[in-house]
Design brief:
single chain, alpha/beta, two-stranded antiparallel ribbon, globular, disordered C terminus, binds ligand 7PJ
């Protein structure tokens, strides 16, 4: 599949797409209340567009580990005015929610993609999406955001995640969602230890092949990058850009990021300079031989 059918748009997947994160949450993971009004969220979204975002992902509930649950009414109150304002801009709009009622309200406004960390497991969510023209991102998580980092366990994290995503992809298709409308996401940080996240990142190429479906990767500013660099959230831009680049090189179709301008530059460098995979391996082998 080399295009994504995404509501009003058909997006080519010949290069990795940048999904820019727009939080409309006072308690959000890293934007912490800076963009909690409609006007500020819309302004932030416009900035991300000028920086090179291909898709805007609007979220009204923080799903960071330990975050509190937001009511349906409150989430709709946060996101719908922002979606309405952005809809007129004619750019691909995504709603980041796991609540079918919020999906419904967002689809009524005309969002092009539903980004669901619960992979359309909510009651009526599959049917809702099937009846729309929107694309969907089906993400893997273990447990619920409030408790998921307590003690995540897997028989084999890569196999378990592939099996889950394959089952949700099949359920979506059986409900009537066409394959060209589906993205899959291993869900970095959602009920995963550092080692689980590393194993999944290293398996991106394998996952892409096993699932035969474009992948979305979201590692921007996440704790795994804090563990690697020892830096707090506010200082994880460089690590996030490095991880975005590696995800793109591993074949990710969509990269979900906070820092759009920096990621866009990095992806331009990748597009201009990328060596064929085989010759990269050759160089690495040569380098090893010469030391
Ligand atoms: C993800 C997400 C992710 C998808 C969040 C954060 C936490 N949606 N929503 N994938 N993460 N599809 O941005 O740190 O990884 S919220």
């Amino acid at each position: 599949m080399n295009e994504l059918h995404c509501g009003r748009f058909v997006l080519p997947l010949s290069r990795p797409l940048i999904m820019g994160i727009v939080n409309v949450t006072p308690d959000s993971f890293s934007d912490g209340g800076c963009f909690d009004s409609t006007a500020a969220a819309v302004a932030h979204a416009q900035k991300l567009l000028t920086e090179g975002a291909d898709i805007l992902d609007i979220g009204g509930e923080s799903t960071r580990p330990g975050a509190t649950v937001v009511s349906v009414e409150e989430e709709i109150r946060r996101v719908v005015p922002v979606l309405r304002a952005l809809h007129a801009l004619n750019v691909p709009l995504s709603i980041d929610t796991c609540k079918p009622e919020v999906m419904c309200a967002a689809l009524e406004v005309g969002v092009d993609l539903v980004n669901d960390i619960a992979a359309l497991e909510g009651r009526g969510a599959l049917e809702l999406l099937a009846a729309s023209g929107a694309a969907v991102c089906l993400m893997h998580k273990q447990g619920e955001p409030q408790t998921m980092q307590a003690a995540p366990e897997y028989a084999d994290v890569v196999v378990d995640v592939i099996d889950y995503l394959a089952a949700r992809r099949d359920a979506a298709q059986a409900a009537g969602i066409a394959p060209e409308r589906i993205l899959l996401d291993p869900g970095f940080g959602f009920g995963k230890t550092f080692e689980h996240n590393v194993a999944l990142f290293r398996a991106l190429v394998r996952m892409r092949q096993a699932l035969d479906c474009p992948l979305l990767v979201g590692v921007s500013r996440k704790s795994m990058l804090g563990q690697i660099t020892g830096r707090p959230v506010s200082e994880r831009v460089s690590a996030s850009v490095a991880a975005a680049l590696l995800a793109a090189q591993s074949g990710a179709a969509v990269i979900r990021v906070h820092d759009v301008a920096e990621t866009a530059d990095a992806l331009k460098v990748l597009a201009a300079l990328e060596l064929p995979v085989a010759s990269c391996a050759g160089l690495r082998d040569n380098a090893r031989l010469s030391v």
